[in-house]
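Recall the central idea of this unit: under ordinary conditions, the amino acid sequence of a chain determines the structure it adopts. In this exercise we apply that idea directly, starting from the sequence alone.
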Amino acid sequence: MVIKLVVGLGNPGREYEDTRHNAGFWYADLLAKKLGMRFNLEGKYFGEVAKTKLDGNDLFLLKPQTYMNLSGKSVQALSSFFKISPEEIIVVHDELDFKPGVIKIKHAGGNGGHNGLKDIDRVIGKNYWRLRIGIGHPGDSNKVAGYVLNSPVIDDRIEIDRAIDKALSVTKQILASDFTAAQRVLHTN
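Accordingly, the structure predicted from this sequence is:
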């Protein structure tokens, strides 16, 4: 089995472009550039979509334009139409539980309170892969909303970008579902 759909989570609009919550969009944009893909707004999938063939298989990149809390609507629309199973999907998102610079792959499991993951879980279940990009935690759960919707300080952004570059270095392994090989690179400092 190979990954057929990479979903980068974020919020649409210039006001959210550089916020921590858009780390998934940052990854998706760089992956599209690396693979020579271009995003187009696709209304029927409620998002920006890029498509290519890789080793004879269709590969879709998706950036939902529904805002974070409704990300599942976009994921379900595209995955249902193209008959992509949850096991063939990897969702890339910001992770409060990891400091900037940490990036890990996980299969299924809880959503950690992430509203985008909650909505995806609701519509397709939990049996998909996640690429979790550490953004750090504000230290107070009451400050989380403001924290994720603001830009990281420069040192944190450098670490987040470094983690994304590390993930891009194992693109071939991730897309081939060779998660053990990808984890060996990503889960070490």
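The mean pLDDT is 96.
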